[in-house]
């Protein structure tokens, strides 16, 4: 029996069975569904993308996987070189893993050991954001701040090692002044907090964060698993404000196979580069640098450049703003739009009861959560397909109006 994610198995509605997928569409045996959320925000070029599929098949004809312990191979070497040249600043050192959550774990471990390796044993604390979501493994849950996902940690009580602040500059300045040399890192989802409610904030907060991290000697981590590869309208938010550690996943492979990477700058890397074995990063996911995933990632990056994704996302945002301009309903708290993401937040979670099935019946796959109805569309949608997604959203409110 399959144990499905984020579901009470006893009461869950039967999932839709997908029999095929192509472009932005999912197919069941009796329906063609426009995917409005890119399979948890990862399938940014659509399903069965020819160039990525071919890259995977070509690599599979040679070998699918070898461990990176004592071995290496061309796909991982070429991907590492491409990322080092492609990413901003001196984000040159790539540590691969098999999921975004694990890649964040690696980043947090790097940050702590960076100071341990320097003999700064007091820097045990992490600064994070309220409403943060960084994954479902234990350390990522601890730096997260959403009890709807991570209520199980309540049995441990509040962690003395993690502080959460709102996206307010004054609160951030106060936290840095208070904890000073106890902090090892400040981790954020830059500009767009995904699973915490599609919350959006201003770049000025991140610019000030960079200044404070420099001032107090704290590492800045950007979790761009969801925001990277164009989602916010920037190629990466790291292009605007440079972190010390960058975490990428989801769109890294165009969503065709699981893979993630934690990319460190020279300062972080050199704190581990030593004759002393104890200073090595003792971490090693079995499938890190998987050859199929590296081939997919190389093809995905080539597509990003070929398709001029930033221009596409700018157009998606313009159409989104046009379609949702002036749309109101007494049950809506706020409508938020940034790049390739749109969110309709309602006051009462019950307002969205039944929306997923309604959307299915109108040819759209959606998965609202809590009181958030949102879209995170594939970048390949044409205008007609994009308009359809918002038309279905608006029709829901009209049909259910009291």
Overview of this protein structure:
With 402 residues, the protein is α/β, with parallel strands linked by helices. The chain has two domains: 20-48 and 309-399, Aspartate Aminotransferase, domain 1 (Alpha-Beta Complex), CATH 3.90.1150; 51-306, 3-Layer(aba) Sandwich (Aspartate Aminotransferase, domain 2). The protein has helices at residues 38-41, 50-60, 74-86, 100-117, 138-143, 147-150, 169-179, 203-216, 266-270, 291-306, 309-324, 355-361, 383-399; strands at residues 20-22, 25-27, 32-35, 93-97, 125-129, 162-165, 183-188, 192-193, 199-200, 219-223, 245-248, 260-264, 332-338, 341-346, 364-365, 372-376. The strands form four sheets. A seven-stranded mixed beta sheet has the order 4-12-11-10-7-5-6, sandwiched between helices. Helix 2 packs antiparallel against helix 10 and helix 3 runs parallel beside helix 10 (291-306). The chain is globular, with a radius of gyration of 21 Å. The mean pLDDT is 96. The record marks 6 as: Participates in the substrate recognition with KAPA and in a stacking interaction with the adenine ring of SAM. The modification N6-(pyridoxal phosphate)lysine is found at residue 250. One of its GO terms (molecular function) is pyridoxal phosphate binding. Belongs to the class-III pyridoxal-phosphate-dependent aminotransferase family. BioA subfamily.
Distance between the termini: 41 Å
What is the average of the pLDDT values?
Answer: 96
Task: Spell out the helices and strands N to C.
Answer: EEEHHHEHEHHEHEEEHEEEHHHEEHEEH
Residue share in helices?
Answer: 25-40%
Residue windows where pLDDT falls under 50 for at least 5 positions: none
Number of helices: 13
How large is the share of residues in beta strands?
A: 15-25%
Shape: globular
How do the strands of the widest beta sheet line up side by side? 4-12-11-10-7-5-6
Q: What's the gyration radius in Å?
A: 21 Å
Number of strands: 16
CATH architecture of the largest domain: 3-Layer(aba) Sandwich
Biggest sheet architecture:
7 strands, mixed
CATH domain class of the largest domain: Alpha Beta
Task: Find the CATH topology of the largest domain.
Answer: Aspartate Aminotransferase, domain 2
Q: Structural class, from helix and strand content?
A: alpha/beta
Tally of separate domains: 2
Protein name: Adenosylmethionine-8-amino-7-oxononanoate aminotransferase
InterPro entries: Aminotrans_3, Aminotrans_3_PPA_site, BioA, PyrdxlP-dep_Trfase, PyrdxlP-dep_Trfase_major, PyrdxlP-dep_Trfase_small
Function: Catalyzes the transfer of the alpha-amino group from S-adenosyl-L-methionine (SAM) to 7-keto-8-aminopelargonic acid (KAPA) to form 7,8-diaminopelargonic acid (DAPA). It is the only aminotransferase known to utilize SAM as an amino donor.
Pfam families: Aminotran_3
């Amino acid at each position: 029996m399959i144990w499905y994610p984020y579901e009470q198995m006893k009461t869950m509605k039967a999932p839709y069975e997908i029999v095929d997928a192509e472009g932005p569409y999912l197919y069941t045996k009796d329906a063609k569904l426009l995917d409005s959320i890119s399979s948890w925000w990862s399938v940014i070029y659509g399903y069965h993308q020819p160039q990525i599929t071919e890259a995977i098949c070509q690599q599979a004809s040679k070998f699918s996987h070898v461990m990176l312990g004592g071995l290496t191979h061309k796909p991982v070497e070429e991907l590492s070189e491409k990322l080092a040249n492609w990413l901003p600043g001196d984000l040159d050192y790539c540590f691969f893993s098999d999921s975004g959550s694990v890649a964040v774990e690696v980043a947090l471990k790097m940050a702590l050991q960076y100071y341990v390796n320097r003999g700064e044993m007091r820097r045990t604390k992490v600064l994070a954001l309220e409403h943060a979501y960084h994954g479902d493994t234990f350390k990522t849950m601890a730096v997260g701040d959403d009890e709807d996902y991570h209520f199980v940690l309540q049995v441990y009580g509040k962690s003395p090692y993690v502080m959460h602040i709102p996206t307010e500059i004054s609160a951030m300045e106060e936290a840095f002044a208070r904890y000073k040399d106890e902090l090892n890192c400040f981790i954020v989802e830059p500009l767009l907090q995904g699973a915490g409610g599609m919350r959006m904030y201003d770049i000025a907060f991140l610019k000030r964060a960079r200044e404070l991290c420099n001032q107090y000697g704290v590492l800045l981590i950007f979790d761009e698993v969801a925001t990277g590869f164009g989602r916010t309208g920037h190629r990466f938010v790291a292009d605007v404000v440079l972190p010390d550690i960058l975490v990428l996943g989801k769109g890294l492979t165009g969503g065709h196979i699981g893979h993630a990477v934690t990319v460190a700058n020279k300062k972080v890397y050199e704190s581990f580069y030593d004759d002393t074995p104890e200073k090595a990063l003792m971490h090693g996911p079995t499938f890190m640098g998987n050859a199929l995933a590296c081939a997919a990632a190389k093809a995905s990056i080539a597509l990003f450049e070929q398709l001029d994704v930033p221009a596409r996302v700018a157009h998606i945002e313009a159409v989104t703003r046009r379609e949702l301009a002036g749309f109101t309903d007494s049950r809506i708290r706020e409508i938020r739009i940034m790049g390739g993401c749109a969110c309709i937040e309602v006051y009462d979670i019950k307002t969205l009861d039944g929306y997923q099935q309604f959307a299915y019946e109108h040819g759209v796959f959606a998965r609202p959560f809590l009181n958030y109805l949102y879209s995170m569309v594939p970048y390949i949608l044409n205008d007609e397909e994009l308009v359809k997604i918002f038309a279905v959203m608006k029709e829901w409110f009209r049909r259910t109006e009291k």
